[in-house]
Amino acid sequence: MASIQPLGQRVLVKRLAAEAVSAGGIVLPDTAQEKPQEAEVLSLGTGGKDEDGKEIEFSVKVGDKVLISKYGGTEVKVDGQEVLILNESDILGIIS
């Protein structure tokens, strides 16, 4: 996979696979599936600074499984694989 280095407080994530079967056991076609909100962090941005000039640390690290906003970020294709670049603030939580 080609390397993308996000800038600033941005994070590169890959959405995890969506459920293909509903809770009632119905098989859902790709067009009926919602975008998954779970993703894996692939890369962190270059960081940022607050008003006082102090470095802002990321709350996530590469490899973390996270919950993201449903419609946040920008989708890009890299080597045929869809990834998402979003602001760290679009990450809702870390899944443990």
Task: Present the secondary structure layout.
Blueprint: E1 10-15, E2 38-44, E3 48-49, E4 55-56, E5 65-68, E6 74-78, E7 81-87, E8 91-95
Antiparallel strand pairs: 1-2, 1-7, 2-5, 3-4, 5-8, 6-7
Textual characterization of the structure:
The chain has 96 residues and is an all-beta fold. The chain has one domain (10-95): GroES chaperonin (10 Kd Chaperonin, Protein Cpn10, Chain O). Helix content is 0%, strand content 40%. A hairpin with a 5-residue loop joins strand 3 and strand 4.
Average pLDDT taken over every residue: 84
Number of helical segments with 4 or more residues:
0
- The CATH H-level superfamily is GroES chaperonin
Relative helix content:
under 10%
Strand content: 35-45%
User: What is the H-and-E element order?
Assistant: EEEEEEEE
User: In terms of per-residue confidence, which ranges show pLDDT below 50 for 5 or more consecutive residues?
Assistant: none
Coarse morphology: elongated
Major beta sheet, strand line-up? 6-7-1-2-5-8
CATH-defined architecture = Roll
The Rg value, from CA coordinates, equals 15 Å
Reported for the largest beta sheet, the result is: 6 strands, antiparallel
Count of β-strands: 8
For the record, the CATH class is Mainly Beta
CATH topology-level name:
10 Kd Chaperonin, Protein Cpn10, Chain O
